[in-house]
Amino acid sequence: MIRKANEQDKPALREIWSAAFNDPLSYADFVLDHCLKLGTVLYDDPGRSFVTLFPLTLQQKGMTLLQGFYIYGLATHPAQQGKGHGSRLLTRAVENTPFCLLYPATSELQRFYSKRGFTTPVRIPGAVSTQISLPDVQDTRPERFYRKYLKDAGDQDFVFLWSASMFAFALGECFFRKGFVSPPWFCYPENGQMLCKPFLSPKGSEKRSYTHGWGMFQVNVPEFDPGKSILYLPLD
After folding, report:
1. How many Cα atoms within 13 Å fall on the side-chain side of residue 190?
2. What is the CATH number of the domain that holds 35?
3. What is the pLDDT of residues 72-116, one digit of tens each?
4. What residues are paired with 123 via a beta bridge?
5. N or C terminus of the chain: which is more exposed, having fewer CB within 10 Å?
């Protein structure tokens, strides 16, 4: 039976997350605290699977078009994988939802989601690996950076917008990974370098590369152009 998870389910969810993604328990605890507080966690108890739906807004030049969800952390305990639990959770997750977005981390996952209706590409400004250094003074106030994010988002043709609380989660994850913010970047160490993800448009003539998130739209948005859409800070 698929149901909404609660705080009492956290120990089981923690075990599933850590086993499925090979993450430390400390990171699983950090993530699940935010999943349960900020999102809707659908839990298949017998199947030992769960997925989180985080609220996401599609805007055009600052005007709200649709309210939907970002699908995050679809996890099945390794002992239960290959039995269709994840597919059933995904089917439930997209019910009665104008749109859902996600970011498959691998080509295998992209194929999995494509077969299940996630075929609309959404542009994600590409992360870069760089030697950027930690600022002398580290500002940790989410509201300061969120104001910049909102202003930038209002200038985009189509943008998938995080709420203030979700933006703070993304920032907190950056700090949890011992990272820092140096606008327009969220940066954290990975493989001996700093991996930096933009949350603002580049300045001047700086070039930008893109990768793809994938969406499922269940309502028609007449003017929506995937080629002009942007999702900053995808959760992966």
Report:
1. 14
2. 3.40.630.30
3. 999 999 999 999 999 999 999 999 899 999 999 888 999 999 999
4. 212, 230
5. N
